[in-house]
Amino acid sequence: MPQKSSKAITPVKFAQDAIAAFVRQITDQVMLFVESDKKLMEEFLHAVDNSSWETVNQQIALKIEKTFGLEVEKQPSFDPPRSKLLQTYSSLRVKSKRRK
Predict the structure, then answer these.
(1) 90 with 77: CB under 8 angstroms?
(2) Whole-prediction pTM value?
(3) Which of 1, 47, 88, 91 could form a disulfide with 73 if both were Cys (CB 3.0 to 4.6 A apart)?
(4) Where are the domains of the chain?
């Protein structure tokens, strides 16, 4: 079992931090998933042939944002993508709830 950290963190705070970290790089994770799935990769390449690399990636990014209720963070991502299908990507976050 891992050693306990001397830094106190609640389970709720840990869950928030872990989800926020994942959401920031969700686009890269989705594209890594596409790369690892033969059928999806073939479909991705066919979609690129029918339009463009940029258009396909933009549509994937928009669908991720809409599906999961996310928005682009104000600061761009400085982490290079691990997916070979991306040159850059925007970090995302859960949409802020605006008070009325």
Answers:
(1) yes
(2) 0.82
(3) 91
(4) 11-89
